[in-house]
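tl;dr need the bound structure. longer version: we got a ligand (histidyl-adenosine monophosphate) that a collaborator sent over and nobodys looked at where it sits. i said id run it. heres the input, straight from their email, havent touched it
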Amino acid sequence: MAEPDFRAPKGTRDILPAESGRRRALVDVFARRAELAGFGEVVSPMFEDLGVFKRLGEDTDVVTKEMFDFFDKGDPPQHLALRPELTAGICRAYAEHRPVPPWKIWYEGPQFRYEQPQAGRYRQFTQVGVEVLGADDPQADIDVLALGWSFYESLGLGQVRLLLNSLGDPGSRPAYMEALGAYLEARSGDLTDQSRVTLERNPLRVLDSKREGDQTVIADAPLMVDFLSGDAAEHFRVVRSGLDGLGIAYEMSPRLVRGLDYYTRTIFEFAADALPGAQNAVGGGGRYDGLVEDLGGPPTPGLGFALGVDRILLACDAEGVFPGPPPAVLVFVVDVTGGGSALSMCQKLREAGIGADRSYGGRSMKAQMKVADRSGARLAAIIGEDEVAAGEVTIRDLRGDAGQRRVPLDMLVQEVSEFVPGPN
Ligand code: HAM
């Protein structure tokens, strides 16, 4: 085959049938769970003013290296960026519309980060997520965590771990930052060059380094959980005991930091053990009590999570679960009389809510049966000269052992429904 002139840009993919159907089914499962828990969907723009995303942290990789930013054609031009995540845009929307809190929303859609692509890491990837704005109560944290946890369970995933930490509140931060800064300064000779630069700007970000050379220093660093203020410690205690009460197994992960700077108090990640370490984060989130205010809105506590759809599907493959929905087409019409019968039969079946397809081009019975087989349809409805003369159609079971039967053409819909009770 000749090389095509163009391919999908690096880090992006075409998601073809039937994989696309499986993704939609996964999003549907998430949407249903979120809506059962009182979340409503928000569809927000795929690009925003770059300033919105700067709030993710001026020193984070997402802002410094991974932003797809551009100027529009306005006069003066506006500096915009494709969204690398949705939390900041949702907080911008909250500040703009001032809905009645608590505002519980869910979302789904593509995000864009200029990352080095590898298995499970793309430049365009899809997240599903929820955010709760205007709730300070630790019960909200428990509710949100339980929603994420039960979503993985509902897909059939059994090897997902919940890692939990608290980053403390503004009252806890200064003492910790001082202790951490002093420790890292003292050990800076043992850090990688990149982390020494990061240390100058934000000591907390050093803890997010995945570089081998930094790990021994990180292993002995002071822990945030030892510096929590009374309020932050109590909040965290209630969250943990709530999870215990619901029987959700979590692991305390005192070195967990997130890749974005807006977090306060509870933070968490979902790790899929069926995936290799570098891509095993299938979701993450936490509280961000200052973000709405930072974007010009009223002081508003917030929390939520985003789950990576692409990686979750990889984890499903690795665990052999969530195969996706069966083909929607139940009947493949094989018409060897020129195609006119196929047209009216498909029409009738579809109007009755039964998936039906056919082939084009007046091909032989054998060729059409091959296409029928490839389509995944359960039944073939075969119409030849004989059948036309008798006003009948032959229904053949392509997958099971129900054999075949000739039925009156005007009974097609009813016969198909009886032949295979229930959907596919
Ligand atoms: P995040 O940890 O940056 O958090 O992303 C959440 C999830 O998106 C990751 O756990 C991963 O599954 C997926 N993901 C991230 N980058 C990529 C990539 N390049 N390719 C494939 N999948 C990826 C956030 O985005 C926060 N907005 C989460 C949040 C919501 N916090 C509070 N509310």
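gonna send this back to them w/ a short note. Residues 19-36 form the longest helix (18 residues).
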